[in-house]
Design goal:
By secondary structure, the chain is mostly helical. The protein has helices at residues 14-25, 31-68, 73-108, 117-143, 150-159, 161-171, 193-199, 202-212, 221-233, 248-254, 309-321; strands at 179-183, 245-247, 272-276.
Length: 337
Amino acid sequence: MLHVDFNIPANMPEEEAWETIRKALKRPLSKAERAEGERDFATCQQGFLAAMSSSTHVFMDAQVMRLAAAGNSDAEAAYQRIKRQVQWQMRTHFNRCYDEAFLAGKRMGGSDKRLEPNEREIIRRLANNEAEYALNMLLDIETGEYSMNIDNRLQLYANALSEVRWLGYLYADLSHNRYVRWTLSGDVGTSCVDCAYMAGKMGALAQNINRQVDPQRGPTKTQAKMLDAIAAHRDHQGGRWGTGVYRVQELVRMAIVPQSATLACTTNCHCTLQEARKPRKRAKHAEQKSPFKSLWPKAKTMDRRTTLPAERARLSELADRWELEHVGRGAEPHRRF
């Protein structure tokens, strides 16, 4: 007969102790197995970047040949075939790698279960949303209306996989008593206002901004706008306790994680999620039940372009339709179009 000993802290509430035992009996993955999930994600991200780079540079080469043979109908037809092929390849890269990233995140969160139907729907929405931005990048290459180096832009698409990874990490265990902490990376001065809000660090961010204000000229327009945003939202920062600790079920309803495109810093975000205990002090606020809205909203890339307005508008509309939202288990997948 197998004997198992459980060491339960004397101050742990009985309900939490029984939930911990139930989780242990389900055999969550070990630390070593969770670390494998991190390595799997790194491999997935590298492969995605290589695949996207290869497809994009094929398209860029085709664009050069098209311009060199301007007016040649055969050359134009060949270019259009390559364009359609690259568009298909990009959608394939997103669909395949987003599945892999979500599964790697689930392993990091302690689960090796296959994808549930609701998780597939979440991934589908994420992949389709981000693909619209990638197809807009092809239009930018075609028209020359862009300023960021294309290779740097591709790196941002690879960074966006971290959003998928963190969602997998959360959905790995949606137990009612699982908590995580939104943790900033490095100095709060490098944080965007959204991440400072999520982490409960807006006071430190305000102090950092005030130290940079010119005493003679006063705050710049950006500094003043940032300080106004902090003042307007400071009382509700950091979740229920104001410390950046969230119940996992609350965070998935908010549909926000580090590296999310919704954040002001988007995929330049360097925040992480860490397992946490429920704070002992009394909560200041009720849980949020609606999707997170950025405190520093910005226009989508395609909305800032002037060339090919009809195609840009179509991609922008599709991106809006595929925005991330929580899909509970047992819910019917969304089929809007």
